[in-house]
Design brief:
Blueprint lengths: L14 H10 L3 H7 L3 H4 L6 H15 L3 H15 L8 H5 L11 H4 L3 H11 L6 E5 L5 H9 L4 E6 L2 H14 L4 E5 L14 E5 L4 H15 L4 E6 L1 H10 L4 E5 L6 E6 L3
Parallel strand pairs: 1-2, 1-4, 2-3, 4-5
Antiparallel strand pairs: 5-7, 6-7
Helix pairs in contact: 1-4, 8-9, 11-12
Bound molecules: S-adenosylmethionine (SAM).
Length: 265
């Protein structure tokens, strides 16, 4: 049982326990204690609906203002494209880039429990670096900042407002090895830095993802890399065009991700 300043008998058995913490608006010092516990990032049940509700509550407990930020983006996009939807709004305000403005936030982002599961499966060693390509608000960085404190995390994200909000929470929580950077992964000036692990969850169009995977292949000629891919889209591109990646783990049932490794010698 977890000892928080104001909640000495905290348990994480059901969503109600998380709802209770959310409604009490707990102190920053208690939030810092919470993120150091695996149970905080574990969904009370493994099904998709509960995992999303759990992640939504974790965001609220940590003070993420994602709803506000996304509503501002939608309002902006509606001005340009009143009849649009989440398929068209992102590209219409972000120079053709698919930023998924208007998409439900729990579909936009990976659930915390899945970020935790991925990091556990990867068996990452201290000081290894993890990069998220198209990071949104940087949930992977929250789990790393809380539980894998010797690792560093960089999330690249096109949408400035998401980057600022994610970094605001990282700074407040003192996650000093985690950062979000505002970048266009498809820009000519973007050079993919070396890392031990890359995470991609269907961030853009086929040619964008293909471009990023080609950059990764160059890095894999110099050092071993692990690549975690979430979503069907990127996995299909890998199957069709990137045989240099070896499939090591394929998520079953409700796990929507695969893990690949590569070291091209
Ligand atoms: C499906 S979300 C995944 C978010 C996060 N990786 C996760 O799994 O929770 C993809 C993100 O990639 C961003 N994105 C799309 N195209 C991009 C680009 N060219 N450069 C940087 N970010 C991009 C979108 O704005 C969106 O936030």
């Amino acid at each position: 049982m977890l000892q928080l300043e104001f909640f000495p008998r905290t348990e994480f058995r059901s969503l109600l326990d998380f709802q209770h913490l959310e409604s009490e608006r707990i102190s920053l010092s208690d939030r810092k204690i919470l993120v150091g516990h695996f149970e905080f990032f574990q969904s009370p049940k493994a099904n998709d609906v509960i995992r999303k509700q759990h992640s939504n509550l974790v965001d609220k407990i940590l003070g993420f203002r994602t709803k506000y930020v996304e509503e501002m983006l939608v309002a902006d996009a509606r001005g340009f494209d009143p009849e649009g939807s989440h398929e068209t709004w992102g590209p219409s305000i972000h120079g053709g880039i698919q930023t998924w403005v208007g998409l439900d936030i729990e579909t936009l982002q990976t659930p915390y429990s899945e970020c935790l599961r991925i990091l556990q499966l990867l068996k990452i060693k201290p000081y290894q670096q993890i990069i998220d390509l198209g990071a949104a608000y940087g949930r992977m960085g929250v789990v790393i900042g809380g539980l894998f404190i010797k690792n560093s995390f960089t999330g690249f994200e096109f949408v400035k407002a998401r980057v600022e909000e994610g970094n605001r929470v990282y700074n407040e929580m003192g996650f000093n090895r985690c950062q979000l950077l505002e970048r266009d992964l498809f820009s000519k000036d973007f050079k993919l830095p070396e890392a031990d692990v890359y995470f991609i969850y269907d961030y853009g169009q086929v040619d964008h993802i293909d471009h990023t995977l080609n950059q990764m292949a160059k890095i894999a000629e110099k050092r071993p890399v692990k690549v975690v891919v979430r979503g069907q889209f990127t996995r299909r591109i890998i199957k069709e065009k990137h045989e240099w990646l070896d499939l090591k783990y394929e998520g079953k049932l409700e796990e929507d991700f695969s893990i690949y490794t590569a070291y091209i010698v």
